[in-house]
Fold these 4 entries.
Entry 1:
Amino acid sequence: MLRYLWTSPNTLLGLAFALAALARGGRARVFRGVVEVHGPGIRWLLDRVAPGRSIQALTLGHVVLGRDRRSLDVTRAHEEVHVRQYERWGPAFLPAYVVASLVAALRGGDPYRHNRFERAALTRGGQPPTELV
């Protein structure tokens, strides 16, 4: 229960996006204690989070927002690593993630692929097939 409380600020943000998506025809389910949501509203959001990248899913606490059901299935192991990172870092995860992206960029790397949190998720959770990256 404490891990849900510790991640609650980020989870509440995810739930706000989830509710908006559900109001626009999205679908949701709970899988292993994580709310997974997909639909047109989530696709729209993911297209704007990082223009030029095809983001298939995004984790906010115990909520995973995915383009569609297939994206959620394919990225589940990767996103579960992020859920554990939220459980470890709590409310500090989002600022730490942004700092890690900035550090990667300042070192001449890719803000996504060289972000320490993404590297852990890519290593432990696997990488989605290239057509989904």
Entry 2:
Amino acid sequence: MHIILAKPRGFCAGVERAIHCVERALELFGKPVYVLNHIVHNTHVVETLKKQGAIFVRNIEEVPTNSILLFSAHGVGPEQWEKARKRNLKIIDATCPLVERVHRLAKKYAEQGYTILLIGDAGHDETIGTMGWAKGNVFLVQNVHDAETIKITETNRIAYITQTTLSVEDCKKIVDILYQRFPNLQSPSRGNICYATTNRQKAVLSLAEKAEIVIVVGDSESANSRRLVDIAKSVGKSAYLVLDATEIQTEYLKGVKTVLITSGASVPEEHVQGVIQFLSSIETCTIEEICVATENVHFQIPKEIKDNH
């Protein structure tokens, strides 16, 4: 079997920073450190951090007063900040800087009296946080159907923003429809879909044709991992999302000679290597890593936990 390994894959700068934030907070302040929601959408990462002393909560009310609380890479709305301050929590904000940029846009548009169309997934942590900054004057657009049917009364001051982990292609289709319907639509000066999402999708699009099947290592909670599967399927390939090697079913591989492997932006590389080892245990494999884009983005950690604290 021939394995094509997509590059870039795995951790993006925002995920690396978020994980480092939890580890550094534990180092500085000791156990426990509380984290609102999953720090990133990957079960293995969350379990590892739990073992180190992180406690994950869904509600700020679960956090004892005067504790350390981290906000996850997906960010939160202003009401969560308010709740945390009321409980006198020491906040470490691990929100990805690219998500934070979307929050600032939502806040700016809301303050300027715009109706905001947020292109994103209902119920996703990032979408919930962004809607909070839009101060109620926001409509969620999830797909082409929403874009075609959404009813807006005030169309003179209207703007759109997007979740950072969308499919670039799907987002473009939605935006094109919105422009046709609302000619005054304002757009972000730079796209909101992040560099890592874009690069990983580009890699799958350009490499899928070389393979018979595509295996995406990632969590089913991870929007960017699910998108990679969708993109592979959109170009006619069988594609499977697996958390790790234990989820690979041998029927995926029947008669298959070439496999493309990639991983979502919150996946530790060891789980990609685990998949390769599993495939190699079934039959002899050759491995070819193909780089489609180079990434050298790094984000500073918050001042509260800098090494010189």
Entry 3:
Amino acid sequence: MSALDANGSTGPPAALLPLRRTSAADEVTDRLLTAVALGTYLPGERLPVERELCSVLRVSRSTVRSAVARLRAAGVVEVRRGRSGGSYVSSSWTAASAGAVPRTLEPRSSELELLFDLRARVEEMVARAAAERRTAEDIRTLESAMAAFASASQPTEEHMRDGALHEAVLAAAGNPLLAELSRDLLARATVGVPREPYRSSVFARAVQEHTELVTAVVDGDVQRAGAIARKHFAMSAEALREILARGLADGLRDP
């Protein structure tokens, strides 16, 4: 399904648009550096496997390999061997991030602001639908997901359980097309990866807002559920603005 673009027409999600830099490996490197800086992938988390990154970014395996090798050279990821091996994030911010983040986000800043607004409105619809349609099974899943998130003790655990809670709300909304639009907008409003940015520094706030949202959905309070969701999803927009400001500031400090 094509999603709405910033001016209201239909088109492919941002992850599928043509790469804009002279080298595809350059842009994929910048996107991954920005994703890590945003907390899309946290220190200790594994990057998607080559096949998945190729599918999401629509580039060749050689391009992905080159980009991941550059991330390793920059000290952003490390390779682990064995059954659970792969490329794991080791640092969320390095000297390379200061250039990559503005190159990735600043040219899209106006479009991103429109997408943040659209996403907040869509997530409001999702929450309202969930409050209208939640079943007894949905309620059990939501309450279990909320308890799991609140009891998380590590940033990577928080991130995983945050995603599971959002998926539970999407499922309760009872409309697969609305869920698909939500995920598509998430990719478009970040760096093309359909995964929520996360900052452990806002864990206490996230627990409070998630608790309020789940309570409203379980209680069938449509208006309150929508209002809470709209406020809550502003957190991702705040994260992008903050990380862009950091990249610009660090770039100005470079000799």
Entry 4:
Amino acid sequence: MRAVVYAGPGQVAVADVPEPRLEAPGDAVVRVDVAAVCGTDLHALHGLPGIEPGTVLGHEFVGEVVATGPAVATLAVGDRVVGADFVACGRCWWCRRGDHWECPERSFFGYGSVFGPPLAGTQAEFVRVPYADSVLAPLPAGCPADAAVFVGDNLASGFAAAERGGVRPGDTVVVIGGGAVGQMTSLAGQTFGAAAVVVVDLLPQRRAMAARHGAIPAAPEDSRAIIDELTDGRGADVTVDAVGGARPLQTALDLVRARGTVVSVGAHFDATFPLPVARCFADELTVRFVIGDSLRVRDRVLPLVAAGVIDPTVVVTARVGLEDVPDAYARFADHEELKVLIL
């Protein structure tokens, strides 16, 4: 079959790879109809330890079940499904609590051994899905595949960030970063009832997209003044770092009010961060981190997508075939695309 593979630092290619087969009783094989390119894929593209050349990339997908193992109880061949971006067993103590990311069986699609045992990714014609009863969810009737694919990661992350931040009706929310996860956080915050969502980004096109879909756009240098005007100088009730790294997290800390909440949903790879503990103590700040867990939130998010309450496809800037993915990766890395779907 054809698949997108990591070909070395900064390089992807489309190659012939072996078609997946059932390896365990709880496996399913899914024919992928829609996959996506995510900002997390760029970290893989830069050559993280644990990602070897030849690794099939990608972790967002919607498709049709074409084979099931004998232990699969809730799915049948022909079912249309959306997958989570990582695998969890669904039965252990952590999974029963809804903390699937801590599952000892966790594995992340298309990310080598960075987050568990290697598991081939979803930017391919077919994908093997372990623990299929846990990882796959049937598509609701009438739910478009190109919208549902966001529930596997980007929208799950944005929704989890708003939820973990405790966004309430009337709140002022600031999102640092207008990439796909930041835009999804903005949409989720509005759905939660925020009175104002400010999206802060360096790129004018990302600010313009946020403005078209209900947010207040802000360049970094203007963000403090805008938020002070909205809140009479208090600062935001909830700030979300949707980028990762020291500077966005520090910006989120700078813009939150006393007794407010900072949430980081961006990926972090630095070992340390200089947390301003004196201010955190004096202002009674809450600082939380969240990893989007589709397994935990999808039963709440999929109905919103199916009903059109949230339309994540507003961030799609390109739809490409499998053979055109390497060029799409290059445009994505250069910020020429915001979200690429692979058909």
